[in-house]
């Protein structure tokens, strides 16, 4: 059985030069340092600290680039490619990207990481010594996390999704806080690895935080008012909806509750942008110019 394993850092000596690089050895086994990995000041007679991986032909190879992410060492890696039949590839700083198997990803492919998302990973190998990304566990994140303070309440935070649950979503914020987004506090379930932004609605005794991805009340009114205003403009300034329209009609047209519709309409009326008459809402003459 080979003593040298992909995903690890070892010290090797130069064994011999070949047209495509150098073979390095631990005295029992040789691995190739490709010529593309050989720096100008390389001294084959000195002991070399190298990282082991599989090259594009599946052979164990060495590189002088030591990535942060390796066996037993975690770090954030960017997703660079998605292959539906395989999983996602992450970049760890090497010439070859590493696969996170679909077996370790959510069952629903729409919740898989997209290109540009980030995963907190270390590395693992299978029985054939092939290298794969290994996702961090809840325990790994708890070791990494810092404790939140009560003063964070109502502040905006950004964080990366690292775990999907039936009840909600776990994220780690940019500051290092562990956050939970209950499913009632989001419009759409985020992807694994997605960067999301929300506000802190609770700080728990264990130092983790509860987060909402829903807009604050005044933000929601602004968004709803803009939707209504845009619809009016698209219809030439008139629409057959007003504050006494049926809730199901409002929901069907604007995807908002009647309460939200009335608040947004009230905002537009207060600003002098619309008027209501005989079951219709109209842009004012000022807005119609």
UniProtKB/TrEMBL annotation:
<dbReference type="InterPro" id="IPR003029">
    <property type="entry name" value="S1_domain"/>
</dbReference>
<dbReference type="InterPro" id="IPR040764">
    <property type="entry name" value="CvfB_WH"/>
</dbReference>
<dbReference type="InterPro" id="IPR048588">
    <property type="entry name" value="CvfB_S1_2nd"/>
</dbReference>
<dbReference type="InterPro" id="IPR014464">
    <property type="entry name" value="CvfB_fam"/>
</dbReference>
<dbReference type="InterPro" id="IPR012340">
    <property type="entry name" value="NA-bd_OB-fold"/>
</dbReference>
<feature type="domain" description="S1 motif">
    <location>
        <begin position="5"/>
        <end position="65"/>
    </location>
</feature>
<dbReference type="InterPro" id="IPR036388">
    <property type="entry name" value="WH-like_DNA-bd_sf"/>
</dbReference>
<dbReference type="Pfam" id="PF21191">
    <property type="entry name" value="CvfB_1st"/>
</dbReference>
<dbReference type="Pfam" id="PF17783">
    <property type="entry name" value="WHD_CvfB"/>
</dbReference>
<dbReference type="InterPro" id="IPR039566">
    <property type="entry name" value="CvfB_S1_st"/>
</dbReference>
<comment type="similarity">
    <text>Belongs to the CvfB family.</text>
</comment>
<feature type="domain" description="S1 motif">
    <location>
        <begin position="70"/>
        <end position="149"/>
    </location>
</feature>
<dbReference type="Pfam" id="PF13509">
    <property type="entry name" value="S1_2"/>
</dbReference>
<feature type="domain" description="S1 motif">
    <location>
        <begin position="152"/>
        <end position="214"/>
    </location>
</feature>
<dbReference type="InterPro" id="IPR048587">
    <property type="entry name" value="CvfB_S1_3rd"/>
</dbReference>
<dbReference type="Pfam" id="PF21543">
    <property type="entry name" value="CvfB_2nd"/>
</dbReference>
<protein>
    <recommendedName>
        <fullName>S1 motif domain-containing protein</fullName>
    </recommendedName>
</protein>
